[in-house]
Specification:
This protein has 255 residues and is α+β, with helices and mostly antiparallel strands. It has helices spanning 4-20, 209-233, and strands spanning 25-31, 39-40, 51-59, 66-76, 85-96, 102-115, 125-135, 139-145, 153-155, 157-159, 177-181, 188-190, 195-196, 198-203.
């Protein structure tokens, strides 16, 4: 039978493990303004921007650095692609290199997209990319690639440099955006003074099961050691010895 002290220790271990997996999430970046239709990810010959991917740099607020989801504003041009469209689109997170250019890949996520209606350009709707508690630096880039089989996908802009009130409501961003030309293999960082609509949600550090398991085993080992010591120092049956010096631990009621 566990003593009161041992029970409290075991309970604290269980609650600690449960609590570690339930850290709250918070919005660490938000740019929710609206400005024009946006940037069409398609070749110029198809009425697009000439980009096959575009995105932005972000600097997160707060201290949560495990990204769980990123929502960006998207639209669709039915003048270029009549009829409903259903497909998927991929977002990639990149580090920001010391020279300010796009660095290495951090993670990718693919989200379903579905547009209907028309004619014309649809209202902005959120597209949600989910990330499994992905650790990120304070500042990084995100970019969305052109979905397959359409030249009408639009990444919605949030602001431009002509309005001094423009800019993220949470976190910060430089005037730079990034784009990759159709057929190119690298991104260009361009300071044309606009930003894309985006909301980034993150959580505090969530320990992996491989981290929690050793901690729990260590706690159980400590309990076992205390029980062995309790048996070692307990008086023999019928000895009639009740000295506190022979009782271990001191919190047991038999003492």
């Amino acid at each position: 039978m566990l003593t009161r002290f041992q029970g409290l220790l075991l309970s604290s271990l269980v609650l600690s493990a449960a609590g570690s997996a339930a850290h709250g999430q918070s919005v660490v970046f938000q740019n929710s303004g609206t400005f024009g239709p946006g940037v069409t990810l398609a070749p110029e010959s198809a009425g697009g921007s000439g980009f096959d991917a575009a995105g932005d740099d972000v600097t997160l607020a707060g201290t949560a650095r495990f990204v769980t989801r990123i929502d960006v504003g998207t639209r669709f041009n039915f003048m270029e692609n009549p009829g409903a469209y259903t497909g998927s689109v991929t977002m990639t997170l990149y580090t920001r290199a010391a020279n300010g250019q796009v660095g290495s890949v951090i993670a990718t996520s693919t989200a379903p997209v579905s547009f209907s209606g028309g004619p014309g350009i649809t209202p902005t709707q959120p597209t949600t990319f989910l990330f499994p508690n992905t650790p990120v630096p304070d500042t990084f880039f995100w970019a969305v690639a052109k979905p397959a089989n359409t030249n009408a996908f639009i990444l919605a802009l949030a602001d431009d440099s002509t309005d001094p009130t423009d800019g993220p409501q949470v976190g910060s961003s430089t005037p730079d955006v990034i784009y990759r030309d159709v057929g190119a293999s690298t991104f260009t960082v361009d300071g044309f003074g606009a930003g894309f609509q985006a909301t980034i949600t993150a959580a505090a550090a969530v320990p992996e099961p491989t981290v929690l398991a050793p901690a729990a085993l260590a706690g159980l080992g400590l309990l076992a050691r205390r029980r062995r010591r309790a048996r070692r120092f307990a008086p023999a049956a019928g000895a009639g010895v009740h000295s506190a010096a022979l009782c271990w631990p001191r919190f047991t009621r038999s003492c």
